[in-house]
Amino acid sequence: MTEPVKVAIIGSGPAGLSAASRAGQLGLSHVLLEKTDHLSDTIFKYQKGKRVLATPERLDLRSDCRFAEGAREYILGNWDEDAVNNKVNVVKHAEVTAVTGQKGAFEIKTAKGDVYHAETIVLAIGTQGNPNRMRCEGADLPHIIYQVDDPEDFKDKHITVVGSGDAGIENALGVAEEALENTVTILNRSKDFARAKAKNVSDMMEAGENGLISIRTETQPKLVEPGWLTLETPTGDEKIPCDVIVARLGSVAPRGFVESMGIEFTGPDREAFPKLSPTFESTVPGIFVIGALAGYPLIKHCMNQGYDVVEFINGNKNLTPADEKDLAAIFANLPQKKSVSEWLDYLRERVRIFADVSPLQMREFMLDSKVAYYRKGDVVFEKGEPGSSLFAIADGHAEVEVGPGITVPIEQGSIFGEVGLISGRKRGATIRAGADSIFVEVSRTAALKLMAAVPGAKRVINRISLERQLLQIFKGGLTVEDLAPVVDAAEVERVPAGKVVLTEGEQGDDVYVIRSGSMVVEKDIGGKPIFLRYLPAGSFFGEMGVLSGQPRNATVKAAVGAELIKLTGESFRRMLAARPQVREATEAAVAERAQMNNFIESRKATYSSAVDLYSDTASFIMKEGLGEATDALLIDENLCVGCDNCEKACADSHEGLSRLDREAGKTFAHLHVPTSCRHCEHPHCMADCPPNVIHRGPDGEVFMEPGCIGCGNCMRNCPYGVIRMEAAPPPKPGLLRWLLTGFGPGPGEPSPKWTKKQLGDEKPKKIAVKCDMCKGIAGGPACVRACPTGAAIRVSPEEFLSIARLQEDAG
Questions:
Q1: What whole-number distance in Å separates Cα of residue 133 and Cα of residue 162?
Q2: Which of 175, 239, 405, 754 has the largest count of CB atoms under 10 Å?
Q3: Structural domains of the chain ordered from first start
């Protein structure tokens, strides 16, 4: 039995140690309980020599402990000294097993049988002791580990790191740099590295460029075997050697232990966090929760919270969080005058996707978001504009223009813009403010973090997205209430490129909606798969099985990596039964597709070679990755005379550097796909640009603004080889001077010899060079305008099939 203390802090990580140091400085009676024999077990378990980052840089540090970027050992040494200097009363080997009592009289028991009494408790135990586990076949094999203590333990190994957050990236860098003979692969199931710090991502990309790490995006483990790992990739399954798997898949709160104290969580999901007040107090008065357990994993955030929570416990009611001034600036231009805390509560109460977000998480998300006031009639975005941010309606309502003079309202509390976020497609409709309104614009990065960290938000976004897609598909013939049973039974499936979803001749009645990516439809005619159609994001397929009950009459497979929403045939059938007009419209669509199938079969009988050419050409286009393009350059080689005017015009429009290579690329029949940017739905080049200079323009062009630092990440991330690193050549003389005197290299890209002569020994910095669709140049793309024969055209995915049909007719 010990004397009661004012505050007991459980856990000596950055948050707990900072809290204890503040208590020590204030002279408060306290005890810091740590289950191990050292302080800050989470940092202690970092791999040896790890560089610890002090992010976010904009955030001021508010703590009695020192913290700046440095090696793990240096930081731990400082904290040991700070604990002594701040008179921290720490008890080690004190693993807490039970907490009982109430505010003013809590009782804390440890595994050794010791009992401590405290008026208040600060829970700072973190989540690292409860890591997420791998879930694929073979996930219980012994060569799967969940942390790296010392990179020196790994020599001459094939190592695969699963997980691309900060911990995974740092482990991959550590084992790659410690032993150059290691073969290191890191897997990321998405394109974006949304959970990692920009510095870590930049270091990883540099290591990838230097051959130290193989970076695999849109890839996840499928099967673990001794010595081998089978991967599910965008192009199909792949088997690689693997001696060790380092699984860094995040961690979750030790929920059972926390709930045993009476603390409530924001929801039932495994990833949910405790419910907390703005002063970190839980649903149990007198118990406060800070650090990673509160949803804030960054060290600087944790340390600030440790300082703040003790100030709150000590009665300081005037203390504002360290990020207060940044958040105040975000809300400054709104018509209503509220404090930051009032605004955050207002948004959480009025917007569905924020309902399960803790006040602490809300602060972090809002720092990456914008809040704006719109007057009635103001345009938020126009139909056809590119955009990947998400909008939430905090006040007022929005109106969607679905036709001339026809609008559909989106109510307060809902969201819009989710199609751009999920599918990468251009904005599907013009959105205006239906009344004086307040909208929150959440950046794509912040939205992805929100969906990853708050399961409730992810469910709301997915549900609204599916409801909107189905309402749009059926042209207003349904209501949200009609769709409820269908959406309740829906499942989201990830499909790699080339994977067959439906097989011709098989029985089945599930219906699929393409959430992102695209599909191709083929039919077996005469023993050969014949290409029927291309299905972009927002399309659906499989409904024929529901209506007819007959086996599948075509094969559907992924043109590129895609996400599908599977609707059960039974729920879909009940929906159609409740709405006869929707069933009629669906039957009409099915009849139209059947007519197309019959047409192809009839043409096969009489024009076999033409149909083969059409099918093979369309298949070629899909294999070249144009299924994820929004604008691609194609050249008809029957018309092309090889003048290279397209390349010359491109160079003359872009400081002497051409953005395309006419001769490079592949050709089928007389359709050529040169090396030129495709302006993808989800641009790979935008996935990791440290200075954030790659953007979409108003016409959908993916372009680079000034500020490129030459890191080469975009070039490495582009799967089509259309970005190169070049130094801008010296200015050329004017056209008139060249015509009159012959001075200079002439039109087009200057030769390396001329450039070298002009520059001498100077070695200018290289920057990324890619097609920008001649953004800002009157008349559109110079390559198309300069083609004297009309051989060069730019097309969208929906136009690809018409190009293929032209080839069929020409045949």
A1: 11
A2: 175
A3: 5-129+252-313 (3.50.50.60), 144-247 (3.50.50.60), 324-459 (2.60.120.10), 485-606 (2.60.120.10), 621-810 (no CATH)
